[in-house]
Design goal:
8 helices; HTH marR-type domain-containing protein; globular; single chain; Muramoyl-pentapeptide Carboxypeptidase, domain 2; two-stranded antiparallel sheet; 2 domains; 211 residues; WH_DNA-bd_sf; 55% helix
Length: 211
C-alpha cells in the first residue's frame, strides 16, 4: 500500500466515524471493504496519532464489552472549524468591551443576516423541500448536513459544527439557530433538537414533525 493510499484510507476512517459515530474495527472493515487486519492497523495508527480513542460499549447477553472507536478532540479538529481560535478571541473582546448586551446584539445581527439568506435559499412549496434546501445551505457552510426519513418524521442531521468553538463559549448561537430553523421550515411542522454536540452527542440532530 502506498503512502497516498494509506492516507486516503485513514481519511475515510475519520470521515466514517465523524458521520456515523463510534464504530468497531470490524464495522470499519466491512464499510470500507478492508481486511480485519488492515482495518486494525489503520485504526491503531490513528489512535497512536491521537485522532481516535477507544470506547467500551456493552453488548447484549454474556461476553466482554465491545470496543468502538470515536474521534478525539484532535480528530474533530481535522474538519473545518471556521477559524475557531480567532472566533473565541473576538467573542471575548465583544464581551469585555460591550458586555452581554453587546453579545445579544451581535447574535441578533447574525440571526437577521442568516434569516435573510436561508429564506432566499429555502422557498420550496413543501416542508420536505424546504428542509432539503436548508440542508444544502448548511452543508455549504460546513455543517455536513443531511436529511433522513424516520417513520412519519424527518431528521435534519449535522455531522459537524464549524462554529463549535464559538457556540461553546456563547450558546446563544445555538438558540438562535433552532429558532431560525423553525421559521425557515415553516408553521406546517414542529422542529425540536434531539441531539446536541455541546451536550456530549456525536452530532446535532433536529426532528421535524409534519402537522
Amino acid at each position: 500500500m502506498t503512502d497516498d493510499s494509506a492516507t486516503s484510507t485513514a481519511d475515510r476512517i475519520l470521515m466514517l466515524v465523524k458521520t456515523r459515530g463510534p464504530l468497531a474495527t470490524a464495522e470499519l472493515a466491512e464499510e470500507l471493504e478492508l481486511t480485519p487486519e488492515a482495518a486494525r492497523q489503520q485504526v491503531q495508527k490513528l489512535a497512536q496519532g491521537g485522532l481516535l480513542e477507544g470506547q467500551q460499549a456493552p453488548i447484549s447477553g454474556a461476553g466482554r464489552p465491545r470496543q468502538r472507536w470515536a474521534l478525539t478532540e484532535a480528530g474533530h479538529r481535522r474538519f473545518p472549524d471556521a477559524h475557531a481560535q480567532l472566533t473565541v478571541q473576538l467573542i471575548a473582546s465583544v464581551r469585555q468591551l460591550f458586555g452581554e448586551e453587546g453579545m445579544d446584539r451581535l447574535i441578533g445581527q447574525r440571526e437577521c443576516e442568516t434569516r435573510a439568506l436561508y429564506r432566499q435559499a429555502c422557498q420550496a412549496d413543501s416542508v420536505v423541500g424546504r428542509l432539503q434546501q436548508l440542508a444544502e445551505v448548511r452543508s455549504r457552510e460546513g455543517y455536513m448536513a443531511r436529511v433522513e426519513a424516520d417513520g412519519a418524521d424527518w431528521l435534519l442531521i449535522e455531522d459537524h459544527c464549524p462554529i463549535c468553538a464559538a457556540a461553546t463559549v456563547c450558546q446563544g448561537f445555538c438558540r438562535s439557530e433552532l429558532q431560525l430553523f423553525r421559521e425557515v421550515i415553516g408553521a406546517d411542522a414542529e422542529v425540536e433538537r434531539e441531539q446536541h454536540l455541546l451536550s456530549d452527542a456525536n452530532r446535532c440532530v433536529y426532528r421535524v414533525r409534519l402537522k
